């Protein structure tokens, strides 16, 4: 895992763009820093901007950004870093230049994910930014304020202890190197105010047969994963029939390659998919969206269109879209999203069998009792609610509402349902699946 992110040199096409960053808000930063040779991608050609970054990876990227090659070598190392470790020369160089220091016990602990304040210190020291000294201030204040003064804290950072992503770090370095100060940025004051909020990343609740996970929408990261990260249309005669070449995997394989605290499977809407041959396509359940128009794979022009969508915006916030076509006006502001049908909660109104508008002949199954799972969002957008219940679609909506949701939709149910929390698979779907969503 450590080697994969920054130590493997890759050869790409003449365009530096990665297929999973074409529509990403930090595309310019990623392309620029990649061209400098400071960062690299994964063997499959992706960059994975949502991936968390650890201490060893950050040290390598910072040393590569600020130190000449002949100045990178091993002399002294902390006790938990071996000279044969790929990151040893970078750790040694960074410690020699006093850019990093170890933990109180002298260890480096390179595999630990790194928080924003730790990142701010490493970057501020590596770039030799001007620091204001205040013995009464928290140790991190000067480093964070140094980045703030240069407009270098991305809008996707919401907390002082936010675990940063590859995209976040790349954007910070890009803003500093290119002296970009006019983009949206977060202030130190905002980070301090957010620190006073009580909701943790995840609150896991068990109520009889129901499982509920409440997530702080400002703190958690969301990532949509597909089968081997590949889903491509091979032929399309819309609106009557579209064939998507998709590679299904076992749910366990998603857990094995995930860094998420919890995963669930379901249909998805991938809002930053690479344009293929000039056609912007997105697969959502049984539908396909082509150049901004929704078409059903099965000939039901309205099928799956009334499910709802939980979208992560470019600034890291979350929004709920219903009907799903409403996302079109916000397309350029969406990073990616997950969706499915039916809608089970809309503006605090639980959808019942009486109020539901049937879209397909087997929709009657929504009103049969089964184990169901879904995602929802509070009205203020501050809390993401995952609900796993035994009952009908209405029961799912009611549980969501009872825990503060305003709008929500079902992802999957019965034998299709997969759910894992903190690396433990709690429900295993009865077949291989195509997509999961991870939160971390």
What's a quick, concise take on this entry?
This protein is α+β, with helices and mostly antiparallel strands.
Description:
This protein has 440 residues and is of the alpha+beta class. The chain has helices at 2-6, 27-35, 55-66, 88-96, 116-126, 141-149, 166-178, 188-195, 251-256, 393-402, and strands spanning 202-207, 210-216, 222-226, 231-237, 241-246, 262-265, 281-284, 287-290, 293-296, 309-313, 318-321, 334-339, 343-346, 349-350, 370-377, 383-391, 407-413, 419-421, 424-427, 435-439. The strands form five sheets. Strands 1-2-16-15-17-13-14 form a seven-stranded antiparallel beta sheet, with helices on one face. Strand 7 and strand 8 form a beta hairpin. Helix 5 (116-126) crosses helix 6. The protein is elongated, with a radius of gyration of 23 Å.
Q: Strand portion, in percent?
A: 15-25%
By DSSP, the count of extended strands is 20
Summarize the biggest pleated sheet: 7 strands, antiparallel
Helical content (DSSP H or I, runs of 4+): 10-25%
Shape: elongated
Task: Enumerate how many helices there are, as a single number.
Answer: 10
How many separate domains?
2
Rg over C-alpha atoms, rounded to the nearest angstrom: 23 Å
Order of helices and strands: HHHHHHHHEEEEEHEEEEEEEEEEEHEEEE
Oligomerization status of the protein chains: single chain
Strand order of the largest sheet: 1-2-16-15-17-13-14
Uncertain ranges: 1-14, 272-276, 297-305
- The overall pLDDT average reads 82
Distance between the termini: 17 Å
- Pairing-aware structural class of the strands and helices? alpha+beta
């Amino acid at each position: 895992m450590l080697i994969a992110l920054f130590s493997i040199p890759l050869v790409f096409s003449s365009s530096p763009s990665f297929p999973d960053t074409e529509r990403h808000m930090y595309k310019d930063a990623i392309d620029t820093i990649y061209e400098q040779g400071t960062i690299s991608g994964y063997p499959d050609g992706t960059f994975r901007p949502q991936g968390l970054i650890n201490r060893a990876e950050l040290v390598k990227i910072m040393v590569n950004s600020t130190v000449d090659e002949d100045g990178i070598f091993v002399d002294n190392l902390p006790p938990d870093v071996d000279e044969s470790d790929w990151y040893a020369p970078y750790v040694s160089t960074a410690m020699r230049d006093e850019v990093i220091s170890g933990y109180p016990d002298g260890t480096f602990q390179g595999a630990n994910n790194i928080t924003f304040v730790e990142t701010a210190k490493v970057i501020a020291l590596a770039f030799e930014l001007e620091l204001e000294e205040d013995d009464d201030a928290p140790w991190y204040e000067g480093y964070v304020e140094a980045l703030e003064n240069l407009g270098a804290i991305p809008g996707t950072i919401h907390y002082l202890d936010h675990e940063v992503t590859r995209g976040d770090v790349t954007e910070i370095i890009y803003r500093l190197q290119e002296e970009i100060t006019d983009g949206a940025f977060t202030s130190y004051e905002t980070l301090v105010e957010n620190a006073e909020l009580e909701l943790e990343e995840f609150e896991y609740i068990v109520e009889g047969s129901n499982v509920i996970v409440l997530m702080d929408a400002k703190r958690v990261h969301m990532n949509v994963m597909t089968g081997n990260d590949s889903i491509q249309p091979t032929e399309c005669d819309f609106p009557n029939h579209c064939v998507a070449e998709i590679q299904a995997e076992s749910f366990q394989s998603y857990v094995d390659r995930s860094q998420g605290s919890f995963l669930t499977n379901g249909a998805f809407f991938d809002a930053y998919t690479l344009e293929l041959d000039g056609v912007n396509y997105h697969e959502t359940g049984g539908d396909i969206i082509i150049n901004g128009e929704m078409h059903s794979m099965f000939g039901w022009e309205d099928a799956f269109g009334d499910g709802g969508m939980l979208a992560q915006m470019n600034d890291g916030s979350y929004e709920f879209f219903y009907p799903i076509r409403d996302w079109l006006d916000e397309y350029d502001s969406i990073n990616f999203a997950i969706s499915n049908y039916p809608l089970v909660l809309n503006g605090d109104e639980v959808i019942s069998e009486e109020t539901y508008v049937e879209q397909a002949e087997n929709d009657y199954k929504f009103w049969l009792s089964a184990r169901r799972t879904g995602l929802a969002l509070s009205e203020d957008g501050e809390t993401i609610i995952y609900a796993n219940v035994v009952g009908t679609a209405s029961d799912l909506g009611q549980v969501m509402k009872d825990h503060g949701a305003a709008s929500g939709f079902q992802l999957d149910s019965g034998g299709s349902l997969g759910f894992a929390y903190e690396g433990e698979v709690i429900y295993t779907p009865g077949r291989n699946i195509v997509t999961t969503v991870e939160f971390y």
